Amino acid sequence: MGRRALPKVDIACSYQGAGPQAIKAFADAGAAGIVTAGTGAGGLSPAMTEARDDAVKNGVVMVSASRTGSGAVYDPHVRGVIGAQDLTPQKARLLLLLSLATTHNEHRIQTWFHTFGTGQFTARH
């Protein structure tokens, strides 16, 4: 797979009072996926939450991760948003990039995050 074949996946960092600009800009620039690096358990500012929901409506796959360095982010029960589990935002971006290079099926991508995003993955021989 060539570099041009890889989908565009970006990371948007949240903080108290963060605006919607990063998510909107990434979505407008053609991002196939966006990982949000949120506070605590992946929390976003209200403006970023609204921008995330708009991006999902426009077909962007969203993954919610924590920027704190530890702790899991589980599926937030928001349609179109996948929890990064134990992955850092950077690792979640790589998994989302590889996932979107293979499929756009949200359920399959979510399953891969549940499988590879936890510290409990063991390879089968």
From TrEMBL:
Pfam families per the UniProt record, alphabetical: Asparaginase_C (PF17763)
SUPFAM superfamilies named among the record's database cross-references: Glutaminase/Asparaginase
The organism's place on the tree of life at top rank: Bacteria
Gene3D superfamilies from the UniProt entry: 3.40.50.40
GO molecular function: asparaginase activity
InterPro entries, A to Z: Asp/glu_Ase-like_sf, Asparaginase/glutaminase-like, Asparaginase_C, L-asparaginase_C
Asparaginase/glutaminase C-terminal domain residues: 8-113
Entry protein name: Asparaginase/glutaminase C-terminal domain-containing protein
Species per Swiss-Prot/TrEMBL record: Streptomyces malaysiensis subsp. samsunensis
Top-level taxonomy: Bacteria, Bacillati, Actinomycetota, Actinomycetes, Kitasatosporales
